[in-house]
Specification:
Six copies of one chain form a homohexamer.
Chain A (H helix, E strand, L loop, with lengths): L8 E7 L4 H9 L4 E8 L10 E5 L5 H7 L5 E4 L9 H22 L3 E7 L23 H20 L2 E7 L10 H5 L3 H13 L5 E6 L43 H4 L14
Chain lengths: 272, 272, 272, 272, 272, 272
């Protein structure tokens, strides 16, 4: 007779399940809930064991309200995850977030993990050390939408006590693909560990944490999130051979290295 | 033979000209520009001497682009100025601001004064002292939209050097109409003086300033805006007789006095 | 027919009514309450109109509980107000304050103004600028007892919501009697005004404010008490003629001028 | 022929030797002194080799003066270590500490390690990060008495140069017995190491340090005590299996998880 | 029979007496000392009543040692006061200051007022608010030499207790001669008052204060110098008519308005 | 056939190559450049493979200009590295640094690593925690000259974008030779690693970093240099046996243990 280990949550909602990180997380979140409800505007294939598939446009309030039924906690990875025209950003990342929190409130969801981004602070310099007490400095329409999400979640905590952990994700890829990512690298395993901490810490209030592995170089100090208990296990150091020491300094006016946001500094609106 | 004194600007755009403060400002900004272009979704009556009247919905990008033609500087008082459903706020205050800055950038406008609000920080306590280095704490959908405007203007300054002064307006009324306003009072004359400072300081970068008179009690410290040169001339002290000393302390759980935002704490979304 | 102006409070308790400042305040607090209950261990003479006289040792818990019956708010000026052996300080200022707050809690008193002292921070240097966010640095057994009172009142606010304003009184005398007091002077009128602000501000939470007039020189920054609305009307400047400019610098090791506490630095326990 | 290794101190006084931590330390401090003088109000059994047993009520000044004869350094673990009525706390923890420092001063003792407590800051939130520069926020009569001890020791350092390390002890138990202790765990070995650092660092001035192991989650930042050289060797991580991930979030108004002090938030005085 | 009012000091040394501010101060410091010793490398004309004239090159150590004989306090306005080649700056402002403090130490002079400059912090932005706790950001060889003087005087205070007030002089001219000076204006009367405060405050330690009048616009916060008791009596506001409101914003890359140092940003070494 | 690995730089200049650390670095920097140009006033022996030897007095501007020809980056370890009379310090460390940066600018050198010193902050207490945002507190003429170098390099960065990393070197010796060095120890390997990080980080701007290994005890917090990616591999812990725990506390007025600078506190100018 097999013993069934009880999973902590009955139902986790993972939005953006068809996106880059959504795919990574799809299997990894399973140990935490009896059912993982997966949501996206794009196709997510067939539901596997322990999954529910709900295609949903976050800009559609009624759909989002329905999506939230029976959900305990939300991992909000939905929306646009790169620079785009404002109107598109607004539908997915602004109206989407507003709808999400309205639904969260109505459905009695207790906690949200919000995939914010380092682009909410991308206009700090690469020689600055940023912590969660400092004002945002978005580097793009995308970054502005992440600031918006942080504001909205702050409001829902102050007003209704709904807790959110905002993870300002660095570069969550299999490995760094440029030198900047040696600093911003956030391994999948560390991302999953940060999600675990965010879901299971007894109290998180409204916490902002930078999503990063234990890289040698960092721009971000997580001192105000120490209650989460997150300890990175990975480091970009193991990829050091990919970027050997080089004297090829960037040009003095190369904004992609002056500011933390990297290439986002060149995207989006152009001067006049 | 009369001498014509040259006015500093050729054309100022005043958005929200049909609103409460818009009406107050309509005449008062005239000394600063040959032409004051007035804009609103509501009717503004006939154009008077030195005025241009342009009815314009800020959510209509093409209209906003047209509105900005030939404009030197903008006083952005348009949009919704009280708590409202998010969808309405989004059109007027979020899409509206995005359109405005896109137009500002395209038209080569040099500086914007943005009517932000104390409701961007309304969830600080009435015993807190807030300055511009501290994170926002919006108290409403309206407050969140003002945080958004501050983010958007910060971006346009970091990216393109377009300067903005964000005035977090307190209570700009003829006189305080409740005890809270003894602290938040911002006389019309002081508002006009702050606009003058904001328009004529040689450099403002991206400045956040709390809009208040020199009241005895204050929650807001403008130390980071001292370069603007604003000195309040009024004080709520002259209205002290309206609110005599009283032992009628608010209830311990009265959020409208625990937090700075006052009655906004009761408006907007409700719990479940 | 005379009209009776309603006074804000029904009953104020003034402890330490026979002390130096107690005598000053005895008449001045009358406009704020129908009845002023005066308390001290020393004699206070006859009760005048609108007064109740209650001789009470603050170290006697039962007496303090009785003293608090029917009281709206407390001005706590009782206890020892100068350096003394610890045992005496403990009875009057430590047990006394503990009894006071226990009684305040039991009687449902809503607010206390606690006469703390600059000697709670007397070991800061006379070249330091101290504000309420900085740790205490007591200069005497007396100063330590004032730190204790601030801790106790903080606790009662955090635990029960009972509000206290801790006034770290500088030098409240008719006029400065030494050069140090040109910096620490706190006129009687300004003291009364600070009490008024402390009693009638809608919310005070747990506020620490330095009790000082608008002197030219100051060691204390009241930025975190700006919500109280206190504006000093006096300044020690009018006594400048008493202390003409002098080249008589203090000795390098004169602790009474190195540290803010002045002569308290020489009182109390001695080395071995 | 055996060589006798010289021990650093001639005599260490350990107060509270019959208490929970006192018993733990009794043997462990032996390597540091020729003689360990043990003191308590309760029985401590027979003196073993290298021990002196002195029964002593800390509220008895004459006894404490006698107790201090010939002592080099003090580990002050005496007094009440849990919430209790104020009068009892006052005798043991307030008068006791005052007597202790008077005796320390008279006996020429050079350094004290004072067992302060996390309950001196127990009213910070479990999402706050606290360091030694921040004001105390006691959560109990007990916590207030620890604030008092910190004030008293600060005074003796400022006045006489007597050095103290105040250790705000977290939860020093064999293992965490509730989830809160996963954050506040302070292993016996780490406690002993912190005592060692406190005793043997060349200069400690007046240092405040949070007593904690290297737990994953922490509320306390010891950046201002980095000169002590303390490095935790243990972590509560090894007990993680005792508290598996759980979705059982505490109630929104559960003060024992909102504030750092835990169950102390429910002890002590009650409302009215 | 005339009564002679005793002057506070026996002898003040004013270096740089032939310079712009030296000439202004020559008569104004007389009330403070029986004798004013005037020093410069340039001619100072005939000694008047109460004056001693000593021509002295500050780079000549023996001469500076002799100059200091019998001096109570020093007003150090000597050296080069504008941008110049480093070698010249080094002789006058670096070796000169080193010689001065060596002499001050040997002669037992008790206090120095050092004419530092806003150019020690000229690379802060014109939208920054600078106080004395922030690192220096010199804008020129001249500014670097002023940082050096601040370091040297800090050392002599820490090492020997010799007190110095470093006045970072703004623009001390009869009236503002460009718009920048509306912010940096420091009237002669206010300069003299600041000197008076610096000389006669009982303790100054090592104080850094920005030399400015009470102008509407300011970049500098003197909160850490509040113990000096300086209150400006003048303001640039009376010269507002000289710089009427203008829309002529500076170019975006005009460093003289981006940074506080103004035209110094264009002087000194050039790129390659 | 052997493959030649390309080295990152064509030519590194190492000044002070005959000094204590210069000798240590001579071989260790070779992997970073095709040619290492070695410079000193003292003899450096024969040039080995990949070396150029240039005897050069840094106070000789023409010589320094010539020295810089063809150099990519500079490791500036030249000058006097201990307390000395000011005139000598001035030639080597002040004029020397001024000449160096003038040459760096003229030669188009892109980055400098400047060997600053903990003696730039030696007058902080051994119980203080110092980071790069705090004002300097030099403990000697030598320390003042290091502050000067930091000012000069800051200027060249603000003015011309020439990047510098200022390493405030602790005690870089084979092993600690006194107890103080248990805190300040900076192993040769860690020094080399810090140089490597300083040379190869994409952007360093003007970074100040404390040069220390991962010692248990530290006075210095490198939080503002986290972008460099430096991780110490050594610790003084392995030398703990050299300094066994001891009760021999320093005297209360022993400045060499009160302040961080150690014995430098006794060198240099003497009182009168």
């Amino acid at each position: 007779m097999t013993q069934t280990v009880q999973k902590p949550f009955k139902r986790i909602l993972l939005t953006g399940a068809a996106g880059g990180l959504g795919k990574v997380l799809r299997d990894r979140v399973k140990p935490w809930a009896e059912v993982v409800r997966l949501s996206d505007v794009a196709g997510m294939g067939e539901a596997r064991a322990g999954e529910e598939i709900v295609k949903c446009d976050l800009a559609d309030k009624a759909a989002v309200l329905a999506l939230m039924e029976g959900v305990d906690v939300v991992l909000h990875f939905g929306g646009i995850s790169t620079e785009a025209p404002f109107e598109a950003i607004m539908q997915a990342n602004i109206l989407g977030v507003a709808n999400l929190y309205e639904a969260v409130n109505k459905a009695g969801v207790k906690r949200v993990v919000f995939a914010s981004s380092n682009h909410a602070i991308g206009y700090y310099r690469t020689t600055d050390t940023v912590d969660a007490s400092m004002p945002t400095r978005p580097d793009s329409m995308y970054g502005i939408s992440k600031c918006f999400g942080e504001s909205m979640s702050r409001y829902y905590y102050d007003r209704f006590g709904i807790e959110t952990v905002c993870i300002r994700i660095g570069s969550s890829f299999p490995e760094p693909i440029n030198k900047r990512m040696m600093t911003t690298y956030f391994s999948y395993d560390d991302l999953v560990e940060m999600l675990r901490c965010s879901l299971f810490a007894p109290r998180v209030g409204h916490t902002i944490i930078m999503g990063q592995s234990d890289n040698a170089s960092t721009w971000w100090d997580n001192r105000y999130a120490s209650h989460l208990g997150y300890k990175a296990k990975d480091s970009s150091a193991k990829f050091a051979h990919l970027f050997p020491d080089s004297a090829g300094y960037p040009e003095r006016d190369d904004v992609t290295t002056i500011y933390q946001g990297g290439k986002f500094l060149l995207d989006g609106p152009q001067y006049r």
